[in-house]
What does this fold into?
Amino acid sequence: MVATAVALLLAPVTARAQTATVPRLDPNAPLILIGHRGASGYRPEHTLASYELAIEQGADFIEPDLVLTKDDVFVARHENDITGTTDVAMHPEFAARKTTKTIDGESHTGWFTEDFTLAELKTLRARERLPQLRPGNAEYDGQFQVPTLDEIIALAKRRTKELHRRIGIYPETKHPSYFASIGLPMDDKLVAQLKKAGWSKPTDPVFIQSFEVNNLKHIHTLTGIRLIQLMDARGGPADKAAPSYAAMATPDGLKQIATYAYGIGPGLDMIQHGDDSPSTLVADAHAAGLRLHPWTFRAENYFLIPSFRTGATPATHGRLSDEIQHYIKLGIDGFFTDFPDIGASARRAAAGE
It folds into this structure.
């Protein structure tokens, strides 16, 4: 994907007209800043170093994507396929575990967390997932372990005490239907682990998110923790609980989501595609009583709306703060970013601070 982007021209675009500010669903509530996989613009994602930095930079929540090990332990990886995010390929003792699997209808070849015990995973070290765009992050390759959910909870609690501000976690269940199909169901286990940490109420510093639907509906029956239905501009939930995310984003679809979820996590382009006019998703979601925490704000030109890019190189950082402020004006209630420091400054600027 990135290699293709390097070959594309990022043509300059005239800046779009200022959009009138739209109120958030609850303007008196704080605008939530989520460190996406930590501060993954600065450190390899889903490492304790990345989460620690996100907290230092002002994130209210840190986000672990959760997958399971062979011995049923939650660890944080973007996918259960760890080929590109660890040095597993450099370990000859694990060479025979390379395999091909079908996950959510797609074929993947590599190494997978469910084929490793936690002790084995702890012998691996994290690697930068986007080295072409983030060569500085790649300098940290080989330094950090794969963290467990318990370690991430402990970090959030420790930093809450040290900083005297509440640090929460925002876990995503990755491929819950797939894991259930191989005898590693996630939902009850996650709820139990969070309850053990003292978190089970809507006021607790936790959100649980998923691109699937049925597991969120099940979790809704188990806990009072706030749930977020993730959505994308393309495709649909892997559990086939809805025909498409587009159908779920209609006013009727959003009303259905509101029966089990606190809010939605749409891709940014569901709110505004490029420099086109914004969609009605913010207004429609608010009308259904849902908050919006869109993903993901990244500084590289490759990810930015054209009018917020700087120059024509995909890896060059553009005007991310301006883009975040633009979406805040569109009425979002929180946001995910790989660059929490820029997110924090944008939030202050939007508030006139």
